[in-house]
Records
---
Amino acid sequence: CHIRGLIKMDILNVSNLTFNYNNNLENLPILKNLSFNVKSNELVSIIGGSGCGKSTIIKLLASIEKPIQGDIVINSISYMPQSDTLLPWKTILQNILLPIEIEKGDLIKEKDNALNLLKRFNLLSYADKYPKELSGGMKQRISLIRTLMNKGELLLLDEPFSALDAITREDLQKWLLDSLNSLQKSMIFITHDIDEAIFLSDRILVCNEKPLSSFKEFKVPKDTTFEETAKLKKEILKSVKGVEDEKI
Ligand SMILES: Nc1ncnc2c1ncn2[C@@H]1O[C@H](COP(=O)(O)OP(=O)(O)O)[C@@H](O)[C@H]1O
Ligand SMILES: [Mg+2]
């Protein structure tokens, strides 16, 4: 149900999505009649406890799983899975070109694009190095650049920074935000970290029920004061915690 030619405002429109892994509606679904959208150039985070269905949503959007019911209207995506690793026997440049190699695309033409992206993000000198020669933060940047090689309008990032230490993580959040602004992309970003979600997003969707049939939604105002951000964080935390408490 991926339909081309979306109206300009919405880059993604999900309506009445129902899903479980057994393809059988008699079992309790993970998602039930879930609807949401993402607008052009909008940055959206999804937060929620482990197992609430965040990765499942992303896999449905990436067509890795098929919905039992409902529609997903989307133009084109670039997907970075939850555990995305570089191939150790390939150089950084070869790793970035992997999506093109797999799709049997024009490697010569795309090599220039890959080098341009590396240059743009100050990583050109690493093109011929191997993953083991890079730090964790560098490797994660390379994985993100590889995701950007797909040219989809909507970036789907499933907890890309969760394995990194706090300083590297903050550094990468800024880097990602700058990259997205200059590339004019939309994004769905999965995270456990409320500060990260507030920093990166225009809107935060909290999974707060099981099965998931709607998100609790928080808009992140631009240029907020420290107090306003703290208040927003508290509200989101309450919403996330509400679900955690129910589980106990
Ligand atoms: N391939 C699969 N087959 C069966 N069940 C799965 C599969 N992947 C995930 N699940 C189950 O679906 C639920 C949602 O998983 P997931 O979307 O990965 O959660 P999250 O990313 O929010 O932690 C969990 O209960 C999980 O155990
Ligand atoms: Mg997950």
Note: Confidence is low (pLDDT under 50) at residues 1-7.
---
Amino acid sequence: MTRTSARKRGYTAAWDKARAAFLAEPDNQFCRECEKTGLLNPGTMHLDGTLETNPWRMHLVVDHIIAHKNDQRLFWDRSNWQPLCPDHHDIIKQREEHGRMTGAVDINGRPVGAHPWNL
Ligand SMILES: [Zn+2]
């Protein structure tokens, strides 16, 4: 990704600042999804707890829980933000790109609960 395309999507210097402040808060030190499985991952581990070896991926990402799709209100709404490890962030972005954001999903990306797949 080039700086230009990142900028076009709304990721500006203001976002860099807001993201850094968010990740500095005590509640946002670990990947939200890894926490659900009992793993405290400060962004430096894979989903199975082994250490990430790619230095470009050793950090938490601020994810928009609801895809903002350039909606500025959603983009800047902190209640719509969550810290994720790079692996979980990739999983969620891939799911969005495939248009399968249907609700709660398990770690394999399959819907949980009362979904046709589970009936
Ligand atoms: Zn994670």
Note: The pocket of zinc ion is lined by residues 31, 33-34, 41, 47, 84-85, 87-88 (CB under 6 Å).
